[in-house]
Amino acid sequence: MPVSDRRALLASIHDVSPGSERQVDRLAGLLTDTLRCSRFAMLVVPDHWGRHPIRSGTPFANRLRAWSDSGIEMFVHGWYHKDTVEHQGISGLKAKYMTASEGEFLGLSYDEAARRMEDGRALVEDIIGRKSAGFIAPAWLYGPEAMEALRDSSFGIAEDHMKVWIPQTGEVVARGPVITWASRSTARTASSLAFAALARQALHPLRTVRVAVHPGDTTKDSILSSIEKTLRRFARSRQAGSYRSLMT
């Protein structure tokens, strides 16, 4: 049976940077123990909020390469992850309600988006010694010019909240909401826990289920418990897989 016909579970750790190394370690251990393999993805931020640059030859860069060598897929996840653009209209609503000033690629020009994508790709690929798996914008938010830049890039795969697609052709290779958690407030945490519980029952018909975790998730035991429960529930009936397998 072709890999693309299998029911898959795609798990990912977002916001991987030197500043989140301890939390990423914990999440990587949780995913590895729960899935019983290292078939998951890491989304790497080259210079998180301009405070945590990744540099070749550093201990953290060596860890990235070791993680990649173990089979973990590496995505480029923006450059700064911080959004400094003043937004209007629908973009303003997205920037205000869907993220805490982290939709970096929501308001960038084509040239700036293309530059940050290419610089991120070059840095990550130089460190891991292989092609990156693809590009995923911070907070899964893409402005129209960033979408054009992504289409013209060499990245093999991209995703947002509701789908995974091939940038150059627009072909959608997986559909359905990503399961993720929010730790910024009590209300957001409660809402994300409720959605995860619903998703554990409702998303089984999907061919591909996506689960995304963040460093902030490690601050709340309720979220960590929900992550483990969600992964275990879906792992019973589907195989932990790679994003690249969607393209075969």
UniProtKB/TrEMBL annotation:
Name of a matching Pfam family: DUF2334
InterPro entries attached to this UniProt entry: DUF2334, Glyco_hydro/deAcase_b/a-brl
GO biological process, one term: carbohydrate metabolic process
Protein name, UniProt field: DUF2334 domain-containing protein
